[in-house]
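Workshop exercise sheet. Pairs work together: one partner reads the sequence aloud, the other fills in the structure field after running the prediction. Swap roles for the next sheet.
Pair: D.N. / O.F.
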Amino acid sequence: MHARHVFVSSVFLFVLALCIVALLPPQGSPSPRSFFQPRQPPAINSKGSTEHGRAGGSGCDYSDGRWVRDAAAGTTAYKEDCPFLDPGFRCMRNGRRDMSFRGWRWQPHRCNLPKFNATEMLERSRNGRIVFAGDSIGRNQWESMVCMLAVAAPAGGVREQSGKPISRHKGYLSMVFAEYNLSVEYYRAPMIVRIDRVPAANDGVRGAVRLDVLPRHADRWAGADVLVLNTGHWWNPHKTVKAGNYFMVGNHLNKTMGIREAFRLSLQTVKAWELSSSRFFRSYFFFRSYSPSHYINGTWDTGGSCADQREPLTKDNHFGEEHSWINEMIAETTEGIKNHGRKAQFLNITSMTELRPDGHPSRHREPGTPPDAPEDCSHWCLPGVPDVWNQVLYAHLLSMGYSTRRKDR
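Structure field:
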């Protein structure tokens, strides 16, 4: 009986081993994936493509990552002597002593961010127009892009189309890259919709934010090969009702409308405008997310400061997202445009930017600024954080197959 029991046990173990081998996947095959295991998007190489083709909007979440120290990051493509920088963004010239804010590289968690190639971007944009429209933070990004591209342009080959000085803060500016017949333009539109000034009245109305009308120069945005919009910093009580600027739809001035409802209506106007024009059918449309400010121990007008910030924050100590409702509305608007067949992308830079309180001019402001003026913890030193925004913009354009030379784009 004992020998028979051993024989049966051996046969059972042999059969069990065969079953286990049969259930294993062939060598080199991927392991079965649990329903609860998140799918990792394919890695993106330095050219912005994956093993399975170009990276689409779901190929890599460039907004999810961390700042890592990188000595090479401090060797920026351009310097503060770039002639197209606003004096207020030249922090080292304005007295800042440390350059630590330049020694960081943004690293997405699940892929690599393609390195910005100025020559390739210029070639892809030949005979085209790249337009930035928005507030002064948008101007920050526009100046960054102009300087990033200028390093690959022939000396003296970049000029302002109408001869306007770069220090001009209102209206619009258009930098022309002559060899490429490319213009990179900036239009001041802090609320994206039109702001009409009215004579001071007894009821305290100084201006009307016309939620259903775009700025007068918006017709110049149309037909751009790449259009990058931004807004947000003026959508607060200080810039609206407390300054005597009330919301208007049609001919009706509404002094009780809330800021969120007004913002929603303004984005509806942008969406309707973009979808109604055939000139945008081939355009690459981007709406950038909110760029956080970093005032500590007060607001911009009550002594708030960011002067002592020397390195990025971590996820454990970053600031609260008081701007989340703005991003949600912008993302929804952009997705609505995309669902109508447009090449539209929500340019999400908020999380990476929120971690960089060290990148602001702070007290190192434009020459001539009064010593007791508020610190600037909203705009950015250049070279600096907006360069990474443009690197992300470039990565999205690569993944979308951007090229002005393609007739079927």
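Discussion prompt: The chain has one domain: 65-191+219-232+255-400. What would you look at next?
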